[in-house]
């Protein structure tokens, strides 16, 4: 997989989530995603960025325009927060540890073509999501 | 400070969300709106979200909170103008905005609010008449 373009954005305060949404929208358009796929990707980015801020205590996201057989957008969210003790449970619809609606992770996975999550208690969490042009 | 304008149209309030809302802006809208409903005795709130390119769970929760608080204060809320791509995304995300009335356009939203306000007005009249007749209300 070839990376055509890459950018890193900080997620430290609520306003940064808006900046992430704007940057992801821009790269989704450049990657020739359709309007519905753009909307799904930006919504997913917003959900994960909020998790990074609220549960991961802040972190960053790498925004990549990638090319395999098709072009697409890959987002990698990283934080050094407390980590998620029970990933399986965190991926269940309706489960929430805090102020959300419990749709964040499981709902976001449904919006994406690719979804990976890795977490270590005490070390942090990395979420990678991708959407490909059709 | 940055804020989303709330317009008063008779007994209704109209809000057009045109900017990508960050969290503090969303919270401020909730507070401002509640204050206006009480100050003007508003019967309905119309929220036009045609300018919103996404609705995530945070914004969805805010719309739900506005609808709940308004209802407690005796005002109906209708959300109008959702973009088709936003609707598709919301359903797939599993966020179906329970408790929020929606309409396709501002015009249809206003129709709903007027009808609701009329119905509520009739109920009040009926209760008043019953008391004059000396019959206990049901």
From TrEMBL, chain A:
Residue ranges of domain Histidine kinase/HSP90-like ATPase in the record: 36-134
Keywords for this protein: Kinase, Transferase
UniProt entry tagged with the keyword S-adenosyl-L-methionine: no
Pfam assignment, any one: HATPase_c
InterPro entries, alphabetized: HATPase_C_sf, HATPase_dom
GO MF annotation, one: kinase activity
Annotated SUPFAM superfamilies: ATPase domain of HSP90 chaperone/DNA topoisomerase II/histidine kinase
Protein name: Serine/threonine-protein kinase RsbT
Organism: Granulicella rosea
Native organism taxonomy: Bacteria, Pseudomonadati, Acidobacteriota, Terriglobia, Terriglobales
From TrEMBL, chain B:
PROSITE patterns reported for this sequence: STAS
Transmembrane parts of this sequence: none
UniProt domain STAS: residue ranges: 2-113
Pfam families linked to this entry: STAS (PF01740)
Listed name of the protein: RsbT antagonist protein RsbS
InterPro entries in alphabetical order: Bact_StressResp_Reg (IPR051932), STAS_dom (IPR002645), STAS_dom_sf (IPR036513)
Gene3D superfamilies: STAS domain
């Amino acid at each position: 997989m070839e990376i055509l373009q890459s950018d890193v954005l900080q997620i430290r305060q609520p306003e940064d989530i808006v900046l992430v949404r704007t940057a992801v929208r821009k790269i989704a358009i450049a990657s020739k995603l359709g309007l519905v796929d753009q909307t799904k990707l930006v919504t997913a980015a917003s959900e994960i960025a909020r998790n990074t801020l609220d549960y991961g205590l802040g972190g960053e996201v790498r925004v990549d325009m990638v090319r395999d057989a098709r072009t697409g957008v890959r987002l990698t969210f990283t934080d050094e927060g407390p980590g998620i003790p029970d990933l399986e449970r965190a991926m269940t619809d309706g489960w929430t540890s805090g102020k959300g609606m419990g749709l964040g992770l499981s709902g976001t996975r449904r919006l994406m073509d690719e979804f990976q999550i890795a977490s270590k208690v005490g070390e942090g969490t990395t979420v990678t999501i991708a959407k490909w042009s059709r | 400070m940055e804020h989303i304008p709330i317009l008063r149209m008779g007994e209704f309030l109209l809000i057009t969300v045109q900017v990508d809302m960050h969290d503090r802006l969303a919270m401020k809208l909730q507070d401002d709106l509640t204050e206006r409903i009480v100050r003007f005795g508003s019967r309905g709130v119309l929220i036009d979200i045609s300018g919103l390119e996404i609705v995530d769970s945070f914004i969805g929760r805010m719309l739900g909170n506005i609808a709940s608080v308004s209802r407690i204060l005796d005002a109906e809320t209708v959300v109008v103008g959702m973009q088709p791509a936003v609707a598709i995304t919301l359903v797939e995300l599993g966020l179906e905005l329970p408790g929020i009335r929606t309409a396709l356009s501002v015009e249809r939203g206003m129709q709903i609010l007027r009808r609701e306000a009329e119905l509520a007005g009739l109920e009040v009249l009926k209760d008043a008449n019953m008391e004059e007749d000396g019959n206990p209300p049901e």
